[in-house]
Structure formats: structure tokens, C-alpha cells
Write a structure and sequence with these properties.
126 residues, alpha+beta, Alpha-Beta Plaits, 25% helix, 28% strand
Length: 126
């Protein structure tokens, strides 16, 4: 099994102009979908993201805002374990964001180990 990141673009309830009742129905779809992934043993984590963002450039400058159209913003993610890209895509096809005009980007997670620093293997530099 490999890890795949399902990135959610656009389709947020606030963008879809849903009533409070419709938003509740969508939230129930999300709950059923993630519960199904958990029950299948493939859910590895995930969260929605706030719209606030900052961009850090190579020169160290910092700018507020993601500066992308609402439909292009990454609004959240789920990590799943799957045997193949096709299997991960099948999980993405059931995502509730598709019912509110959003789309899911499926990306394999690269499996890497960083080189040792001072004889210690570290997942990221300190």
C-alpha cells in the first residue's frame, strides 16, 4: 500500500450558495465518506483548511493571501492508503466536494528518507 493525498479544490459550501439545511446534508455526506474510509482501513488523516494564507518567497519576503481564484484554492485534504493510483482515484470519486462543484486532485506521496545529519536520521531538519 502507498499513501495518496486527495487535495480538495473549490466547491466549498459557502461558494455553492447552500442553505443551512443543505449545508447540514453536505456535512453528513462528508461524515459518511470519511467514516467509510476509516472503516475500510485506508484513512490516514485529513482536515479542512482555512482561507487565510501567506506566501513565503525565496528572498524571505512574506505576502498575505493565496492569490488564486476561489475554485483553485486548496480547501482541505485527506490522506489515504491505496494499492494504486486507480484505487486512490476510486476513493476520490466518492468525495462529497464533487456535489458542490469542486474537484479532487489525487497525488501519490513520495516515499523518501532524508540523509543522516551528525549520524542521526531525521524526518526534517531542525
Amino acid at each position: 500500500m502507498n499513501d495518496y493525498l486527495l487535495l480538495f479544490h473549490g466547491g466549498g459550501p459557502e461558494d455553492a450558495g447552500l442553505s443551512a439545511e443543505e449545508m447540514q446534508q453536505i456535512m453528513m455526506k462528508w461524515s459518511r465518506w470519511t467514516t467509510g474510509l476509516r472503516d475500510a482501513g485506508v484513512f490516514k488523516g485529513g482536515e479542512p483548511l482555512e482561507r487565510e494564507a501567506r506566501t513565503v518567497s525565496p528572498d524571505g519576503s512574506v505576502k498575505d493571501g493565496p492569490f488564486a481564484e476561489s475554485k483553485e484554492l486548496v480547501g482541505g485534504y485527506v490522506m489515504v492508503a491505496a494499492a494504486s493510483m486507480d484505487e486512490a482515484t476510486e476513493h476520490a470519486k466518492q468525495c462529497p466536494i464533487l456535489s458542490t462543484g469542486g474537484y479532487v486532485e489525487v497525488r501519490p506521496v513520495m516515499d523518501i528518507t532524508l540523509p543522516p545529519i551528525d549520524g542521526h536520521v531525521s524526518p526534517c531538519p531542525e
